[in-house]
Amino acid sequence: MYSADAAAHALMRPRRSVWKKIVARFGPGILRADRTIDRLALGRIVFADPAARRFLDRLIHPLVLADQERTARRLEREGRIRIFVIEAALTVEAGYARHFDRIVVVHCSKGEQLRRLRERDGIGPSAALRKIGAQMPVKDKLRFADYAVDTTGPLSATVEQTERVHAQLVRDAELRRGQT
Prior knowledge:
Order of helices and strands: EHHHHEEHHHEH
């Protein structure tokens, strides 16, 4: 599986061109002692300032999309993939849904989303609500979905849904290959 978040992290490594542009825009206050970007500090800025978020999105998203496409083509040439799954939370918001054969929206209830976000990032309820508010509402994302996985319930239910979606994605890919 390809992680868009991991690709974005790689782009933001110290002294790379993206890192330089981010530091030039947001200042050295977003850097840790080791010169890496403090993503929580950067997140506080971009989730509070729509212009800052647009800057970051316009800088990062096209580069990640290009890397995804290169990776998929390489793996296809090598015959190493049946399906190419990309974990990319902002695919729909960034306007990139049309670049994919299928879209799977993984979601949970708003209450569960708040709880997970607060726990993961160690933030308060208002900061968590601000982050959620800066994102496209789940009901709108679901309009783009070919498949959906609701992770609100127990892990076993999520695994079961994911296995069903994976099997269907493999069938979809086999049918598509048979038509070409």
